[in-house]
Structure to design on (166 residues):
């Protein structure tokens, strides 16, 4: 029986690099970590601009209207709590602040008793008593077009570095 045999020599480096690339693709945690870090910076920048991921301005807080300053940034606790957690499956961006959901989605807080809710407004020493208070949504989490473009670049760079020669 007649046949053709081809032996390839000198491909050891290429085969080793393919093995390294395959191993990296099986461990994308560094990719997700890079994406998460970029999204944290982007989310924190929304606090500076006081806008949601679609570029819509947040409704100003009463404190901002009365005293000046920035909405959701009085103590910087919320903005400084934005973080990310990367895994092999993806990345989550968020905060551990209990009040975050109220600011992200808005809420109506209702009094539990007939005595109502009692509080002072900024710049006013008199107490207010009401049966409910509505806090408007001021979304800060989410992706905008710039985030989507940044993710594409991060993925592209990560894949390129996976296959680039040293």
């Amino acid at each position: 029986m007649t046949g053709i045999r081809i032996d390839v020599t000198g491909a050891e480096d290429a085969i080793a690099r393919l093995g390294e690339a395959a191993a990296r693709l099986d461990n994308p945690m560094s990719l997700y970590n890079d994406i998460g870090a970029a999204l944290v910076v982007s989310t924190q920048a929304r606090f500076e601009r006081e806008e949601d991921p679609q570029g819509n301005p947040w409704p100003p807080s009463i404190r901002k209207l009365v005293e000046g300053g920035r909405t959701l940034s009085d103590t910087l606790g919320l903005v400084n709590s934005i973080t990310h957690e990367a895994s092999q499956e993806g990345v989550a961006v968020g905060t551990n602040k209990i009040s975050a959901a109220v600011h992200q989605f808005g809420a109506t807080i209702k009094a539990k008793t007939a005595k109502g809710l009692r509080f002072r407004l900024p710049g006013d020493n008199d107490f207010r008593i009401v049966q409910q208070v509505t806090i408007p949504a001021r979304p800060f989490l989410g992706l905008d077009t710039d985030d989507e473009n940044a993710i594409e670049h991060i993925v592209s760079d990560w894949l390129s570095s996976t296959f680039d020669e040293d």
